[in-house]
Amino acid sequence: MGKLVLFLVVATPLSGAVAQTFQRLGGCPNLGCVLPPDQSDFLPGQYFDLRLEVHAPVNGSETFNDGMPDENFSVTITKEGGTPKGIDEFFNVTEPELEKWDFKWYEDLFAQDANTPSVVNVASKIYRKIAIYEPGNYAVTLRYYGDQITTANWVVRPLSTQKRAKNVILFIGDGMTTNMITAARLLGHKSINGKYQSLLQMDQFPVLGHQMTHSIDSFITDSANSASALYTGHKSTVNAMGVYVDSSADLFDDPKVETIVELLKRTWDSAWGAVSTAAISDATPIALSGHSRSRYAYGSLIDQGLNSVTNYSWTSHGGPDVWFGGGAEQFNPGSGSYEGKDYYEAFANAGYEVSLNKTSLLELGNSSKALGIFCQSHFPVWLDRNVFTENLATFENDPLGSEDPALDLPGLKEMTLKAVDILHTRGGDKGFFLMSEGASIDKQMHALDYDRALGDLLEFDDTIRATIDHLKEIGELDSTLILVTADHGHGFDVFGGVDTKYLSEQKTDREKRRAVGTYELAGLSQYTVPADDVSYSTGPNFPVNWDPRYTLAQGFGANPDHRENYRVHKTPRKVVSSTPGFSKDDLFVDAEDSPDGFIVNGTLSVTESAGVHSLTDVPVFAMGPCQETFGGVYGNVDIFYKMADCLGLARPDNKSPVETENECATKR
């Protein structure tokens, strides 16, 4: 007991510290870990893996039991009001073999600076592909080291088994906040005496809610685990998707949870697809089918997208019916693709029509599965594709892997409308699920290139408008739940107006700042005022002048050092660079960025080259069947459960809809 008492004394004050910058393992409150952890929610019948770990730190402030983990740990599960049962009995599975490994972590910044990691030995078991069918409250109790206990309280939600929506279209404006929507409206829509003459399509949705975006290990999330929360109903760790992160070294053995498209395919055999202006292997699109602790395992995640999980028994999602985006590096054979394979060929062999440019996209039929990969990496943004088009020739992003530019590029609208047509045809009476992402709202906010971000937001809204109109045309609007939300936010806002001519002509930074007008000196938007010899032919709902004299004073709450002149950047922005004589990680204001502007001191580490995500809640717009359930404020995981309820994905009886219908017919 001496060691146990010592551990408790040391561990008690650590509970606060361990929950800060560095953590031994997210979701693990002490030396025993249950994954899924405490406070997890489940859909009745949703498959998941259960990982149990017992930790024995060898050194550091948590040192315990001479680094020997308890290999004789036990675990039970208890439904509220019932009696405890062993996991093997409750789930009717075979007891798995014991696994052992070790890992290292830093307790804090001082330990990292001194390069003194703590070593932890682990004993573990994992139960794979199990499910709880009966709604209710459950407690999983892990016992170890004699009288140590870790308890995870779970809730299996009582949700519908019947469809209310035939289809769901989930629009994700990556990183999009209410402040950005407000700024985009100011750019693209004319107002007279404070009254807008037109509105964004998002403004016209009947229901508005807000979602909280925290992850397990941080209140500031990233796009991988935030997308995973939307698609699975389970929170995860930064950079992870479709799994709860364990402490093993393997990127693909972590305990998985079933995603909405896997459930939809297994339950209703519906069609599904994803469209993005990012690489299709990027976090938001790939998390629909991906299961890994690392969003950066791009090639393997593409293979999962085509073939589902193959290293363990798991649900087959059947491959997407539509996959449109960038990221040709993972499809051309070579170092970027999984095992060096040609994934254009792999998809073609699986029956996909493959498109590599806008022309061939528009020529695709609607009856076959379709893969469209239109460039390497992420798409050039809307502003470069439509206004500063000369920039396209500077990209080396040909989808076949050459250093030529990809010039025949579709936009988000063209990809989304084509995806709807294909999914409508292939899904038929079984319906479809489509995720459409405006990816570079986020990516350009990171770069502090606000105009490019807001241009992509306006493209995103234009796509939503066109999709609604198209659903009306094909007779599917009333049967389709349409959601518009974000995965996280940024600390962006507009705080005034700027006389850019005056700013440019002043000599010192302090004089230049006088050009920023606030309150009554902020003035009015000039982006919707026609200017001589300026015409972009981009249609309504976009600015008629992207470079007026009087612009928006806009900025970030979390940014590196940079220079601002508040004018549109006619080439993609780079705010910092390394300087000769300093470490390459010690970044300074880039001399070529906004040379007539003034220095804005950063709020982040000097190693950060971009702005970062923020805490803010993000909006949720809803229309269609079940729209009334999306009002209010709720967690990101709740969006999954609201969609699942509307799609009738719960299976409390462990029976498919076909089996249930056959039973009803027999009784009749």
Which structural traits does this protein have?
10-stranded mixed sheet, alpha/beta, disordered C terminus, 668 residues, 5-stranded mixed sheet, 18 helices
Q: In brief, what are we looking at here?
A:
It is built from 18 helices and 30 strands. The protein is an alpha/beta fold and 668 residues long.
Share of β-strand residues: 15-25%
Strand arrangement, major sheet: 16-17-15-14-18-10-19-29-13-30
- Mean pLDDT level: 94
Please report the total strand number as a whole number.
30
Q: Structural class from helices and strands?
A: alpha/beta
Largest sheet: 10 strands, mixed
Amino-to-carboxy terminus distance: 65 Å
What's the structural blueprint in terms of helices and strands?
Elements: H1 2-18, E1 32-35, E2 40-42, E3 48-57, E4 74-79, E5 85-86, H2 87-91, E6 99-105, H3 109-114, E7 118-130, E8 136-144, E9 148-156, E10 167-173, H4 178-188, E11 191-192, E12 195-196, E13 207-212, H5 223-232, H6 260-268, E14 271-279, H7 283-286, H8 298-307, E15 322-326, H9 343-349, E16 353-355, H10 358-363, E17 370-373, H11 382-386, H12 412-427, E18 432-438, H13 440-446, H14 450-473, E19 480-485, E20 489-490, E21 492-499, H15 500-505, H16 509-512, E22 516-517, E23 550-556, E24 562-564, E25 576-578, E26 587-589, E27 598-600, E28 613-614, E29 618-623, E30 632-635, H17 636-646, H18 657-667
Parallel strand pairs: 2-9, 10-18, 10-19, 13-30, 14-15, 14-18, 15-17, 16-17
Antiparallel strand pairs: 1-3, 3-7, 4-5, 4-8, 6-7, 8-9, 11-12, 13-29, 19-29, 20-28, 21-22, 21-23, 24-27, 25-26
Helix pairs in contact: 4-14, 5-17, 12-14, 13-14
